């Protein structure tokens, strides 16, 4: 701590009977990588440790800041384990010492009698109540009769947690920058608690789009219902928003909250910053517990994971970080390969020397992670806790490959560390420095290639007129320095995926290319690593050249065959028309309906020619519409066609096979069709009633959505 920084808030003196003790945690992300054989149980094991810490420190309640689950629809295994752990550690005979002063029906499930706060339910035996808001990963979804629901709603109605901070944003202001006055914005109702002389107000706001939250705060449209003597309450606000802008996603400013707030518990950000931080010009502090499991391999996740023990007495508070022992140690390294090659004296084009250098760096990171684990274990044993078996660490080495011609396969490199680290497939991360790459002008950065539409001299309209998906793909792939797949084949596969909506185009091309490469490698016999790389480069160039030749020949053959194909198509069309020259009507039964003609004198109806014995076609003259039902039994063919046809259509070829027809009763409908007109009926008898039922159901759903939006 520097001399200019103020000391963290503390409780000077207090009676233990008046202190409210809260265990604070955010971003548990239960279910993250649950199918991974090594890391699959990390999130649930750490959540179990958090509940055990709550029991160990005899807290009055647990406060969760969102993202309890990693998925909006957690798996049954996740739900089962979370519900079992909550029942195991939060149920019991211990009396809850927090007196509820707010309305217990605030947030109650509509249509049910049990209260919203679980320890007020006489049918439940709660020892440690859990209060939680939703995050951006487990937010409510849907528009059913009960409104938008999430996994926390399931846990809430089952009596395991107390879900707060849920509200419905008005739809009118979601798209209108100047909402009407009747649109109240965000309304927050608190959970008011008391223990002895200490009174606590909990205000929860579930995750909202950051731009929307910024607008609501800036427009002073966030209404917080507070007691009249709000200065005598310790007010805690729990939010789950971006604290730091991540372009293009904005952040919520820290200084826009109400001055009556004493402490803001900030979720969503994963780096651990539990020590309360003051906000310039505001009376409140911010604490950021961070995530309890690493969901990425970035710098923020490299900090040691903690949860917070919050103690409150009247208007004073203090926060104590509690380390989490079940979190894997995470080591992050960063090197600039070109500079390292100059210092160590090896050539960046020598793949063997580069691989040896990178292995040494990764081994050093593994040793640091194991040493850190042993130190934490030894410290815990000194405090009387049991020793935990060593966990495989997470290791990430970021390698700047600017001015390096080529690199080895990172996945194959990571396989050498299987059994020593928890993430062997992504231990290496290659990237190029944009500044250095632009200065050298020797290569285009793979992450941000210089495309033809990036010309600063072009206007926006010229760029839009020039942009082509195929051109962009070619330029981007050319900057990636592909080592196995050819640029031409990948370009064509991506084009088929984008323009032809062929979902299997990329997968099929990659599978075929890899199969051809493996066949070519096998034909060369046993090879060492250096020879293998050379063979792969040659095979890639060979396949790329063959693909271009095949594409060129295909275009030539296609051009030569156009005229022949056109003539053949015309011939086929004529033959189709000749086959139906005996049609009985002036249009096919499958033609689209035509508008009714102007009123004229009705023409006499032509009768069909007599047919031979059998199930031939019959034409029935009638003043009303005629309904023809098709039978599946159409073995016998027509022996004689009607005498006159005035219109040719290839659709009538479908009717070349006759069908059994039965005359339906006169519908009595006027003006629907001309006399003698045939209409095919394919619908089952109950279809009209089904459509009516669907219409009624759709109307009910529209009514429900409209009520929710109000």
Descriptive account of the structure:
- This protein is α/β, with parallel strands linked by helices.
- The chain has helices at 42-56, 76-90, 151-157, 172-175, 210-218, 337-344, 351-382, 410-414, 434-440, 460-466, 469-478, 487-499, 505-523, 529-579, 687-709; strands at 20-25, 61-64, 99-100, 130-132, 141-144, 147-149, 162-163, 186-188, 191-195, 198-204, 222-224, 234-240, 263-267, 273-278, 285-288, 306-313, 316-323, 330-336, 394-400, 428-431, 626-628, 678-680.
- The strands form six sheets. It has a seven-stranded mixed β-sheet, with no helix packed on it.
- Helix 12 (487-499) packs antiparallel against helix 13 (505-523) and helix 13 (505-523) packs across helix 14.
- The longest helix is centred in the C-terminal third of the chain and has 51 residues, at 529-579.
Task: Give a topology summary.
Elements: E1 20-25, H1 42-56, E2 61-64, H2 76-90, E3 99-100, E4 130-132, E5 141-144, E6 147-149, H3 151-157, E7 162-163, H4 172-175, E8 186-188, E9 191-195, E10 198-204, H5 210-218, E11 222-224, E12 234-240, E13 263-267, E14 273-278, E15 285-288, E16 306-313, E17 316-323, E18 330-336, H6 337-344, H7 351-382, E19 394-400, H8 410-414, E20 428-431, H9 434-440, H10 460-466, H11 469-478, H12 487-499, H13 505-523, H14 529-579, E21 626-628, E22 678-680, H15 687-709
Parallel strand pairs: 1-2, 2-4, 4-7, 8-11, 10-12, 12-13, 13-15, 18-19, 19-20, 21-22
Antiparallel strand pairs: 1-16, 3-9, 5-6, 9-10, 14-15, 16-17
Helix pairs in contact: 1-2, 11-12, 12-13, 13-14
């Amino acid at each position: 701590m520097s001399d200019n920084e103020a000391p963290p808030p503390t409780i000077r003196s207090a009676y233990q009977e008046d202190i409210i003790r809260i265990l604070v945690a955010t971003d548990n992300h239960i279910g993250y990588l649950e199918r991974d054989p090594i890391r699959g149980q990390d999130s649930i094991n750490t959540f179990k440790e958090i509940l055990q810490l709550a029991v160990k420190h005899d807290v009055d309640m647990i406060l969760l800041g969102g993202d309890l689950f990693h998925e909006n629809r957690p798996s049954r295994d996740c739900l089962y384990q979370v519900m079992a752990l909550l029942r195991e550690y939060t149920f019991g005979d211990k009396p809850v010492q927090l007196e509820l002063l707010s309305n217990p029906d605030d947030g109650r499930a509509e249509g049910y009698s049990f209260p919203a706060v679980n320890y007020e339910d006489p049918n439940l035996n709660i020892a440690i109540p859990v209060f939680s808001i939703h995050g951006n990963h487990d937010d409510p979804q849907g528009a059913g009769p009960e409104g938008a629901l999430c996994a926390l709603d399931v846990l809430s109605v089952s009596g395991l947690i107390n879900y707060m901070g849920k509200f419905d944003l008005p739809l009118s202001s979601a798209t209108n920058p100047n909402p009407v006055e009747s649109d109240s914005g965000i309304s927050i109702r608190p959970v008011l608690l008391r223990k002895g002389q200490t009174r606590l107000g909990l205000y929860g706001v579930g995750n909202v789009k950051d731009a929307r939250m910024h607008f609501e705060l800036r427009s002073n449209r966030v209404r917080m219902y507070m007691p009249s003597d709000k200065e005598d309450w310790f007010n805690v606000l729990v939010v789950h928003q971006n604290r730091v802008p991540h372009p293009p996603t904005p952040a919520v400013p820290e200084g826009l909250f109400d001055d009556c707030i004493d402490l803001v518990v900030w979720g969503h950000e994963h780096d651990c910053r539990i020590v309360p931080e003051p906000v310039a010009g505001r009376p409140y502090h911010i604490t950021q517990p961070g995530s309890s499991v690493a969901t990425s391999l970035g710098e923020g996740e490299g900090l040691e994971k903690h949860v917070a023990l919050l103690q409150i007495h009247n208007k004073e508070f203090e926060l104590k970080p509690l380390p989490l022992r079940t979190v894997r140690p995470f080591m992050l390294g960063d090197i600039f390969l070109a500079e390292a090659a100059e210092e160590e004296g090896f050539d960046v084009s020598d793949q063997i020397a580069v691989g040896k250098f990178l292995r040494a760096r990764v081994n050093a990171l593994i040793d640091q992670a194991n040493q850190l684990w042993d130190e934490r274990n030894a410290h815990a044993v000194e405090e009387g806790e049991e020793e935990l078996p060593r966990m495989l660490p997470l290791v990430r080495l970021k390698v700047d490959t600017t001015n390096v011609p080529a690199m080895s396969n990172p996945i194959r490199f990571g396989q050498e560390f299987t059994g020593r680290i928890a993430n062997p497939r992504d231990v290496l991360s290659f990237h190029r420095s944009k500044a250095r790459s632009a200065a050298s002008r020797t290569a285009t950065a793979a992450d941000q290639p210089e495309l033809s539409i990036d010309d600063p001299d072009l206007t926006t309209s010229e760029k839009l007129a020039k942009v082509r998906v195929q051109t962009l793909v070619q330029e981007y792939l050319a900057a990636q320095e592909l080592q196995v797949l050819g640029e031409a084949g990948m370009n064509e596969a991506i084009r088929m995926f984008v323009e032809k909506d062929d979902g299997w185009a990329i997968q099929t091309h990659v599978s075929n290319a890899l199969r051809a490469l493996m066949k070519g490698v096998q034909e060369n016999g046993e090879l060492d690593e250096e020879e293998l790389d050379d063979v792969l480069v040659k095979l890639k160039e060979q396949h790329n050249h063959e693909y271009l030749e095949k594409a060129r020949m295909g275009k030539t053959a296609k051009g030569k065959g156009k005229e022949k194909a056109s003539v053949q198509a015309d011939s086929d069309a004529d033959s189709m028309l000749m086959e139906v020259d005996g049609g009985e009507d002036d249009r096919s039964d499958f033609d689209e309906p035509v508008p009714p003609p102007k009123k004229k004198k009705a023409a006499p109806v032509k009768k069909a020619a007599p047919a031979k014995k059998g199930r031939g076609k019959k034409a029935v003259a009638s003043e009303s519409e005629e309904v023809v039902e098709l039978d599946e039994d159409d073995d016998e063919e027509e022996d004689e066609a009607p005498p006159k046809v005035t219109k040719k259509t290839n659709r009538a070829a479908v009717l070349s096979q006759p069908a059994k027809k039965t005359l339906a009763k006169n519908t009595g409908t006027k003006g629907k069709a001309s006399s003698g007109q045939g209409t095919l009926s394919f619908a089952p008898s109950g279809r009209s009633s089904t459509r009516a039922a669907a219409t009624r159901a759709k109307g009910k759903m529209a009514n429900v959505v409209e009520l929710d939006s109000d």
